[in-house]
């Protein structure tokens, strides 16, 4: 095939695909408070359910991320984090289309959606299509090692005044490098807490406190207690902002057109 024909076909394909490339989910704005200027009033009061509890439902985007450069690592965890960071994210589960760590989901630039019911709260992350179920039916958190480990942990929630308190354990972390023989077998189950490669183990218990401070802002306080990886528990704070224009998370299938393995020379031959 000559070059002129190839060029013509390329233009035709680009024109044919341009509407679908630019298409978005149709916007369907919810009923939101409007200020005197006609714009959404994100400082309006917190919406509440019939039982008086804050309604956390909505689509949220990261507004403020924590600094994780000075965590209280155990020596082996500090070494592993430094090695992962030096690789520039080569084995970050995010780029490899694998389930991510809990902080990674909260700070990614893709939105998350909270669906709140009386007995369960669902958190749907656009990033890598993550899904968490928070049980609100009064059940207790199971003992460590009790149930089959969950990628995103087993989570139970309760209300402390206007704050949703979520406790999670039995996480199943993953270090993709261990599956490829780059890391020793001891790295199996050592997950990525953040995109810097800070590790967490199956011993981690996570406590999150969700507080909707007004209509447009959600604060998440995350306390990590992992005695295998850290010398003491520590707390991180994340800010989320409501997506008020009616946008919804898209269906994100990471392996579709996945190029990361090819670009890093690890695609199957």
List keywords for this structure.
two-stranded antiparallel ribbon; alpha+beta; 269 residues; 5 helices
Describe what you observe in this structure:
It is a single chain. The protein has 269 residues and is α+β, with helices and mostly antiparallel strands. It has a single domain, classed as Lipocalin, CATH 2.40.128. 17% of the residues lie in helices and 25% in strands. The protein has a nine-stranded mixed β-barrel with strand order 1-2-3-4-5-6-9-10-11. A two-stranded antiparallel ribbon has the order 7-8. A hairpin with a 4-residue loop joins strand 9 and strand 10. The longest helix has 20 residues. The protein is globular, with a radius of gyration of 21 Å. The protein starts with a helix and ends in a 6-residue tail after the last helix. The N terminus is likely disordered.
Short description:
It is built from five helices and eleven strands. The chain is α+β, with helices and mostly antiparallel strands and 269 residues long.
């Amino acid at each position: 095939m000559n070059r002129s024909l190839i060029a013509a076909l390329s233009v035709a394909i680009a024109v044919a695909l341009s509407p679908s490339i630019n298409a978005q989910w149709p916007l369907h704005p919810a009923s939101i408070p409007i200020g005197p200027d006609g714009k959404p009033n994100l400082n309006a009061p917190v919406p509440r359910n019939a039982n008086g509890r804050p309604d956390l439902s909505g689509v949220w985007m990261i507004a403020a991320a924590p600094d994780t450069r000075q965590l209280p690592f155990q020596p082996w965890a500090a070494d592993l984090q430094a090695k992962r960071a030096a690789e520039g994210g080569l084995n970050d589960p995010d780029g490899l289309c694998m389930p991510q760590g809990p902080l990674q989901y909260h700070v990614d630039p893709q939105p998350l959606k909270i669906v709140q019911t009386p007995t369960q709260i669902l958190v749907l992350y656009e990033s890598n299509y993550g899904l968490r179920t928070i049980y609100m039916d009064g059940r207790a958190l199971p003992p460590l090692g009790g149930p089959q480990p969950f990628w995103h942990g087993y989570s139970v929630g309760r209300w402390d005044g206007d704050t949703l308190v979520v406790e999670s354990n039995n996480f199943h972390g993953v270090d993709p490098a261990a599956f490829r023989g780059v890391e020793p077998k001891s790295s199996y189950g050592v997950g990525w807490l953040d995109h810097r490669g800070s590790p967490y183990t199956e011993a981690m218990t996570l406590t999150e406190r969700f507080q909707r401070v007004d209509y447009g802002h959600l604060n998440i306080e995350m306390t990590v207690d992992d005695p295998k990886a850290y010398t003491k528990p520590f707390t991180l704070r994340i800010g989320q902002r409501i997506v008020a224009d009616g946008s919804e998370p898209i269906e994100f299938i990471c392996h579709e057109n996945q190029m990361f393995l090819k670009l890093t020379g690890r695609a199957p031959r």
